Amino acid sequence: MAGRIEARLRELGIELPQAAAPVAAYVPYTISGKTLYISGQVTVWNGERKFIGKVGKEFTLEQGKEAARLCALNIIAQAREACGGDLDRVARVLRLGGFVNGGPDFHDHPQVINGASELMVEVFGDAGKHARAAVGVSSLPGNVAVEVDAVIELA
User: Which superkingdom is the protein from (predicted)?
Assistant: First the structure.
C-alpha cells in the first residue's frame, strides 16, 4: 500500500527520477540518528544532465527555478532510497542549501532556489518548511545551473 507522500506525489502529477549514483568520492546520503543528510543534487533526470550553463546568461530566472525544482526532485528520490521506499518516514525538511551558477551580474539567487523550497512545501506540507541558504557561485560540477543539498529529520 502506498503511503500518504506517494499519494500526494500522484495527486500533484509528480514523477520522481531514479536516485542518482555519486560521480565522485562521496555517498549520496548518510543517516546519523534521525537525521538524513543528502549530498548536493544537480540538474539530472535519470542520468541525463539538464540546464547546462549559467542562470542570468543561458537561462532566465524562471528556468533557474525549474532547475532548482529538478534538484529538489532528485533530493526526494534520494530520501525515498534512504528510507527504504517509504517517504512517510520524512518527519521534516530541516534545511536546504542552494548553489546557483550565475553570471557576474545575476543577483536573484534566493528566487532561483525558491523552485526547490516551493516543491518541498507542495509535497510535504508544513513539514516541508525549512531553513535555507541560497548562494551564487562562479561554476558548478558539469557546468550545471543549480545544485541543492538537504538535511531531513526522519520519524
Answer: Bacteria
DSSP E strands in the chain: the ranges are 29-32, 35-42, 44-45, 48-49, 90-101, 131-137, 146-154
Burial 103-129 (b: 16+ CB within 10 A, else e): eeebebbebbbbbbbebbeebbeebbe
pLDDT digits (tens, 9 = 90+) for 74-84: 999 999 999 99
Q: Domains in the chain, please, with CATH? A: 4-154 (3.30.1330.40)
Mean pLDDT to the nearest integer, 95-110: 96
Which residues are CB-neighbours of 88 under 8 A, at least 6 positions away? 3, 4, 5, 155
Q: Are the C-beta atoms of residues 96 and 111 closer than 8 Å to each other?
A: no
Is the whole-model pTM more than 0.85?
Answer: yes
